[in-house]
Amino acid sequence: MKRLLYLLTVVIFFNSTAFGIEEVRKVYLNEAIDAALKNNIDLQAAKINVEIAKNEIKTANRLQNPSIDAFSFFGAAGNSEPRQFGLSQNIEVAKRKARKNLAESNFNLVKNNVDYTVFDLKMDVREAYINLVAAKSILNTLEQQEALQEDLLKIAQNRVKTRNAPDIDSIQAEIALNQMITQVNTARADVKTALANFNKMINNPDNTVYDSMDKLFAEENNFEEMMTPPPTLKFPSTQEIVEKVLENRYDIKIVKQEIDIAEKNLTVVARQRVPDIQLTGGYAFKPGKYSDSGNFNNGSYVGASLVNIPLFYNYSPEIQNAALKLQQAEMKYISVKNKAIKDISAAYERFLVSVDNLNRYETKIVSDSEKLIETSKKSYEAGKSDITSLIVMKQSYKSIIIGYTMALTEYYNSWTNFLREVNDEDFELEDITL
């Protein structure tokens, strides 16, 4: 009955007009990642930066627009000087190619940043999916414990009726049941919160709500579906991991690209010292009434000028700043690489600890606890132990099962965190030489 009420609550939640929900889709982890890549609004906005950077390459490679010149003289000068009509064109020297190279380097940086955004989104979806399944699993465990506590209350009430137990047994069992009900209610709220966070990561603009499949941790350890290696593998050493994956990190690729940008920016700034050329040409004429011969005279004119000669200002401050920015980028690369080694090592060590903890739960804790709680229940039914001991034992068993769920959650999340640090969603431990 309680299970039915819970399902009805979920249905009501999903169809709440306050959330504008129209459809609920249950997805596996890989399907959730695909949905996020397709629908996430923030990602779509980030991808626009690639098009902007592509257009900036065209902007950097632009030619200077010409100017139209017209000269007409008045007064006495108009009697002796011709009228002129023509064009002026500034020609940049050693600047346009350097500017284009800088824009192309910036374009590559933008692409790297978008790739990093895509990767980070995948990791966010993984983590949110794992947390949602974990919340469901804890709820499932608590609901099972609630059902067991209801059975215990019935057993205690029957024993009290037959005078095989004191009234306090029934009171204790009822208190324990009510306490369990409050924990179940909290767990249901946690599931709704985890569901909201999961959909926040997908960030779908329509009203579709994505939900995880209901294969709970405690029911089946399907590591393949959770895109995580099984904990029974032989794992390589931390040093082998670091040497293999360091250069694949997006932050290292990005900072390398920033060095390239700084180098090209220094070139662009230095090239400002090179004067440009201005070419001028056009048509000139002089009416007959203003000429000595009385004839209409016409022809053309051409001219050339050096412009922007670095005589009074030679751009030294800009060049010095560009050189300093290059130095900053090189120092940043050393820093990022140094921090990356520590981050990868820490993440992998944490993952190895989660492997050990999970294996201990599966081989030494959970199975023995199940036998112990079953034995304790039969012992109380037979009148060989008191209800206090059984309640304490059940609470201990509940803590163990939830601890096992959390160990699984930590295992999945620590692997996700490790993937974040190596920046490789398809990382295979088998690729590391053991």
Give an overview of the whole structure.
The structure is a single chain. This protein is of the alpha+beta class and 434 residues long. 65% of the residues lie in helices and 11% in strands. The protein has a four-stranded antiparallel sheet, with no helix packed on it. Strands 1-4 form a two-stranded parallel sheet.
What's the short version?
The protein has 434 residues and is of the alpha+beta class. It has helices at residues 2-14, 29-39, 41-60, 77-80, 96-161, 167-202, 238-245, 250-270, 316-381, 387-422; strands at residues 23-27, 67-71, 83-91, 208-212, 276-286, 297-307.
Helix count?
A: 10
Q: Number of DSSP strands?
A: 6
Distance between the termini: 54 Å
Radius of gyration: 37 Å
Average of the residue pLDDT scores: 85
- Name the helix and strand elements from N-terminus to C-terminus, one letter apiece: HEHHEHEHHEHHEEHH
Strand content: 5-15%
* Helix percentage: 55-70%
How does the major sheet shape up?
4 strands, antiparallel
Unreliable stretches? 1-21
Return the structural class: alpha+beta
Shape: elongated
Neighbour order of strands in the largest sheet: 2-3-5-6
